[in-house]
Every structure is written in C-alpha cells, then in structure tokens.
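Input structure tokens:
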C-alpha cells in the first residue's frame, strides 16, 4: 500500500508513542528516572529509524542521535525526528507533557509532520488542517520552559499583560498552542531542528504564526541543524509579541 507522507508521519509518531507508554508502565517502578528516559529514547529511536528505512529507504533521516540512510543534502528531502521530546517529563510519574516528533522537510519547508502526545492519547498532524479553537477572554497565556525560561520573558509578559505557563517539552508546548490551551510559546537559548520541525509543521497547518524571535522565517533542512529560537502563537498576538520582543530582548541575543 502506498502511504502518503502525512499519513506515514502520523502512523509512526503514534507507534513510537504507544511503545513509550508501554515501556513507561512496565519499567516505571523499577528504573532510575535517567535510565528510564534513556531506555525510552533509545527504543523510540530504533523504532522510527527501522520504520523509515523500510518505508522511505531513499530518504535520509536526521535526529538528535545522528543521521542515517542516504547522504543528506541541504534543501533536499529529509525526515527530521525527535524520538522522545521531554525525556525528563517522560521519566516523572504522571506527567503528560512529553512528545514524539516526526517531520518531513523538503526544499527547507516542513511538508508533512505529526506530533504524538502519547500520555494524552493524542496525535496532531498535517494530514488534515485543523481550525484553532477561539481564544478566551482572559489574559494571554505564554508557555515557557520549566527549567530554562528566557530571562527576558517576564518583561514580555508584563508588556502585553500575559500569564506565564511553565511546561515540559517543546512539542507539548507548541501542541498546547495548537489546542488552544495557551496562546503562545517562545524559546531562546538553544534548540535544534528536531526540537521544533514537527511541531512547527503542525502549528502552520493549524494557521498559527511561526517565526524566529526577530520575525524572520524558520528554515529547516540546513547543513547546520542549530535553530536556537522560535515563536509560535495565535496570529492576532504576533504583532504585539514581536514588538515586545524587539523592545525587551537583549541586543546581543538577536
């Protein structure tokens, strides 16, 4: 059966997520948290690598664990995956803010993507474009890192009257914007393409604004996968957030 790239991304993200849920349940009471996270990451990586080698043998694969398949060329087709985004959250009992990312990038654009939120029983993908829920009437809510929120973010929140919401993985935070649970996510200080390619593809399919913090385009499939900052938000908030960022973000980090 010929499976299109959108369907394949969603199916593989779901399969890896189901495996992670099973492993977490089986080993949570007997494993050290770091060992549990490492085991989950390795298992999901092996599953995704083997599946893509079988389903798309002509395409290279890029992940945080390295590359596989044919040689990768900037701008060409490449699958960009994060087998377990949010290893720390996966290792903590009861947390649901971790994810699996599967994205296909072609000509520097995310052409197909899926983000599985296995502990929430959800898979968000580009197979069907979704409409974002209407925004509530309260203060804007900005998702930020639990452990490494940018130092300038409180100033952004104060400037636009927003509330900060600490959350786990990048995929879970961007999914929360897609689902209407928060209104924006911004990150600065270090990420790679596998941290955001799939979530950004899903966010774009939902009609959200996605960019670097200076408003420039997010470009994927480059020779260097370092992509240190990004903004994902509701379109109606983009102007205010970008203006606040230009006024509040330290000059040296732009």
């Amino acid at each position: 059966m010929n499976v299109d790239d959108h369907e394949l991304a969603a199916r593989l993200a779901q399969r890896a997520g189901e495996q992670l849920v099973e492993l977490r349940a089986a080993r949570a009471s007997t494993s050290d948290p770091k060992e549990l996270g490492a085991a989950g990451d390795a298992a999901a990586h092996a599953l995704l690598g083997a599946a893509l080698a079988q389903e798309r043998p002509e395409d290279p694969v890029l992940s945080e664990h390295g590359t596989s398949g044919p040689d990768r060329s900037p701008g060409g087709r490449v699958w960009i995956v994060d087998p377990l985004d949010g290893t720390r959250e996966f290792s903590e009992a009861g947390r649901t803010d971790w994810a699996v990312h599967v994205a296909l990038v072609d000509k520097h654009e995310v052409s197909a993507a899926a983000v599985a939120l296995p502990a929430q029983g959800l898979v968000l993908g580009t197979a069907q474009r979704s409409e974002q829920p209407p925004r509530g009437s309260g203060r804007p809510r900005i998702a930020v890192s639990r452990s490494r929120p940018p130092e300038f973010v409180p100033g952004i929140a104060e400037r636009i009257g927003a509330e900060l919401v600490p959350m786990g993985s990048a995929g879970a935070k961007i999914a929360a914007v897609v689902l209407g649970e928060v209104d924006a996510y911004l990150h600065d200080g270090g990420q790679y393409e596998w941290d955001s390619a799939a979530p950004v593809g899903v966010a774009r399919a939902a009609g959200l604004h996605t960019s670097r913090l200076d408003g420039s385009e997010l470009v994927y499939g480059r020779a260097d996968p370092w992509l240190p900052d990004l903004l994902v938000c509701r379109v109606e908030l983009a102007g205010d957030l970008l203006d606040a960022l230009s006024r509040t973000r330290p000059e040296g980090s732009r």
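Residues 5-27 form the longest helix (23 residues). The chain has a mean pLDDT of 92.
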